[in-house]
Design the sequence.
């Protein structure tokens, strides 16, 4: 974030050569625990116009470090399609004309055959990125994706088809023996969690069972909060298709399925996934009740290189507009956007990726599509700052709602989601974790600003360390956090940090993101929720969640408290004192 | 009883934690190209096969070694290469039919030594694709799996509950 803030001048067009693409590993990349294969990709987002930042698993980050590089800063634009070939201390720019037009799987295979090395790990874009679909993602392996904020679009705008790495250099640690022992402890700690063990068996799909039963899943875009008769997409259904699980670099959890589909549209094929979010994007939000539909759509977006959430969110929105008569077959070119119509779903995914027909309108994301379709459509768009929300319905859960409103990159659960709020944990225990009293009722507003603030700092640190969020306090309570991070940092680098110092680093990262966004014109007015959260109450679900909506007054109060915790003023601007305290008063020190 | 390192590819999730801990334990750095174990992958069909020295009973590496630097550790059953004797001729690398002996970029011979009887790859393998078990148990396990399939068949044929 520091690099992004320093390398970008304010107000530039995200798709211009002035944008900067950053690909970075973390301090803990390469340790044998906590899913240390995470890689961070950042640029100014073509969807929101604010911070663009997406984290990707797989094997790229350690391979890049073994090839001798921690961070790549990519500027300008290539004249013709190229890819970067990084190997043992060298970076070569290679012609990629033979890769242009290939899908993400073919591209990776071709790069391997170009160099005759099956161990090469590549980040690549598919057709969507080439066609500058604003929410195109960056992909690696069969399934891993830096999905959000359109980083694939930025690669496409630079004519950069892929970044390939292969390394045989050492990643060094200060205390390797102790690190090995401590990492074993970390693995045991993570695997003791029931959540981790369940994820090892069913992946993130496991979350669906409880959230759908409760009524926290948006269905038919945002009309319902539960998919009734949704048992066909219960995680257990995956047993019919899965041949086992697959893990990212050094991960004991291995949370994704390897599956084959033998019959039906596009079959036979082998793929990996789907995530919980794809289950929502191509299941509940578009009202498709078949696991096969989700499996095909998941494979298609991975092939084209499209963000699963943005794609599903936009299609669900279009389906509701069609139902309400706001759009007709005239604009959809004869496509009948009916709920649950899988042919339409698959066709729209193709159209978006290829920028054809109605898909071309959706391919620009919510902000531009609303302009084209008309302001009337805005009310139905479940987005914040121009980015689609996932398929969760946060109306009964103020803490989760605040998180998607304040997230620096647009509606997003991965900047702060305090998912453990849903467990109804004892209040003294919550106080122990978050450091102040708060309600254990997930419907309450009491103390929830603190939860969101604390999680934002934790996730900012986790992302910059290069480890996996699923192996810290996200869905599991007794998971590695500040103290464990401190010890790992010490064993890897010899540097010593206390919990409060680490939290300050988290605060610095998040405040820089905030300043970056403010510089682009964002402020308090953008930290809000779609109108429907305030106006429409949840129609179904368990008695605890039925009839809930967000109370505007209490929400604004929560936002005030949240700003205070960060040391930002009433308008969401970091105060002078905060900036001084964090030592960033001289930033940006060098616009490069 | 002699233990052997048993590989159950069906359980492998391809995470390469084994490669990583192998290089950290032996070389004190994270560098998968210096590991003694390697997961061979066919990602497009989801097939992962951990490959490691099988500590053969009639080891070719021992046979071809011109200066007899390969010997068996009676305690662990591991075939060890004496680095002080090794002249780096790489015949063992060339002749091992399984790719069980490797060589790193510093021309150092890499071969599994079973970590002196407590293999780190096994310790870290959560899915249990790598196990260090009694040689007899390997056979019994396989028998049980095969018998399980047979018993399914018998249930169908004779309509009995075993």
Sequence:
């Amino acid at each position: 974030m520091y690099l992004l803030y320093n390398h970008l001048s304010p107000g530039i067009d995200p798709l211009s050569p002035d944008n900067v693409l950053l690909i970075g590993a973390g301090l803990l990349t390469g340790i044998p625990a906590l899913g240390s294969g995470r890689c961070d990709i950042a640029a100014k987002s073509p969807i929101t116009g604010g911070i663009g930042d997406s984290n990707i698993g797989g094997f790229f980050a350690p391979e890049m470090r073994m090839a001798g590089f921690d961070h790549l800063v990519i500027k300008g634009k290539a004249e013709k399609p190229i890819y970067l070939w990084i190997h043992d201390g060298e970076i070569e720019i290679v012609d990629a004309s033979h890769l242009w037009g290939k899908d993400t799987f073919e591209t990776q295979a071709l790069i391997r055959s170009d160099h005759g090395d099956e161990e090469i790990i590549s980040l690549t874009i598919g057709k969507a990125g080439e066609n500058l679909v604003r929410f195109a993602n960056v992909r690696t392996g069969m399934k891993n994706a830096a999905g959000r904020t359109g980083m694939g679009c930025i690669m496409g705008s630079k004519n950069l088809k892929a970044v390939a790495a292969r390394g045989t250099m050492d990643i060094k640690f200060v205390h390797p023996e102790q690190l090995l022992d401590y990492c074993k402890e970390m693995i045991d700690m993570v695997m003791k969690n029931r959540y981790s063990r369940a994820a090892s068996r069913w992946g993130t799909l496991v979350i669906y069972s409880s959230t759908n039963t409760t009524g926290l899943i948006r269905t038919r875009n945002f009309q319902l909060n539960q998919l009734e008769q949704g048992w066909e997409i219960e995680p257990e259904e995956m047993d019919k298709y899965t041949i086992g699980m697959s893990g990212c670099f050094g991960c004991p959890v291995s949370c994704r399925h390897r599956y084959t589909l033998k019959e039906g549209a596009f079959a036979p094929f082998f793929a990996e996934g789907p995530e919980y979010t794809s289950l929502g994007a191509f299941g509940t939000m578009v009202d498709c009740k078949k696991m096969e539909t989700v499996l095909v759509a998941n494979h298609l977006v991975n092939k084209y290189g499209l963000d699963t959430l943005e794609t599903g969110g936009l299609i669900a929105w279009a389906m509701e507009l069609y139902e309400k008569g706001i759009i007709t077959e005239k604009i959809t070119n004869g496509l009948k956007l009916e709920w649950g119509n899988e042919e339409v779903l698959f066709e729209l995914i193709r159209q978006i990726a290829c920028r054809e027909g109605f898909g071309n309108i959706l391919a620009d994301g919510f902000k531009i599509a609303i302009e084209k379709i008309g302001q009337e459509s805005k009310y139905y768009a479940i987005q914040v700052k121009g980015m689609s929300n996932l398929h969760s319905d946060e109306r009964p859960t103020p803490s989760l709602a605040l998180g998607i409103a304040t997230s620096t990159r647009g509606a997003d659960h991965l900047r702060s989601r305090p998912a453990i709020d849903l467990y109804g944990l004892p209040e003294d225990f919550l106080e122990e974790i978050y450091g102040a009293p708060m309600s254990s009722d997930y419907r309450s507003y009491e103390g929830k600003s603190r939860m969101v603030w604390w999680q934002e700092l934790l996730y900012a640190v986790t992302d910059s360390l290069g480890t996996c969020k699923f192996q810290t306090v996200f869905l599991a309570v007794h998971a590695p956090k500040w103290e464990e991070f401190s010890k790992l940092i010490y064993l890897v680098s010899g540097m010593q940090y206390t919990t409060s110092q680490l939290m300050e680093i988290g605060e610095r990262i998040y405040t820089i993101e905030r300043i970056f966004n403010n510089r682009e014109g964002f402020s308090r007015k953008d930290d809000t929720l779609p109108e429907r959260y305030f106006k429409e109450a949840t129609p179904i679900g368990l008695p605890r969640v039925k009839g809930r909506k967000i109370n505007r007054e209490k929400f604004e109060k929560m936002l005030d408290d949240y700003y205070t915790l960060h040391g930002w003023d009433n308008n969401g601007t970091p105060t002078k004192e905060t900036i001084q305290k964090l030592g960033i008063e001289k930033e940006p020190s060098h616009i490069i | 009883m002699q233990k052997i390192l048993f590989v159950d590819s069906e359980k492998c999730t391809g995470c390469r934690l084994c490669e990583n801990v192998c290089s950290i334990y032996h070389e004190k750095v994270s560098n998968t190209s210096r590991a003694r174990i390697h997961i061979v992958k066919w990602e497009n069909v989801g097939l992962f096969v951990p490959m490691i020295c099988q500590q053969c009973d009639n080891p070719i590496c021992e046979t071809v070694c011109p200066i007899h630097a390969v010997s068996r550790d009676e305690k662990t059953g591991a075939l060890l290469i004496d680095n002080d004797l090794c002249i780096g001729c790489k015949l063992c690398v060339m002749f091992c039919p399984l790719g069980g002996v490797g060589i790193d970029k510093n021309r150092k011979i890499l071969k599994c030594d079973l970590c002196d009887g407590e293999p780190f790859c096994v310790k870290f393998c959560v899915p249990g694709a790598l196990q260090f078990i009694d040689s007899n148990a390997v056979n019994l396990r396989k028998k049980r799996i095969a018998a399980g399939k047979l018993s399914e068949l018998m249930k169908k044929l004779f309509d009995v509950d075993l």
In short: Chain A touches chain B through 43 residues (CB under 8 Å). Residues 2 and 400 of chain A are 27 Å apart (CA to CA).
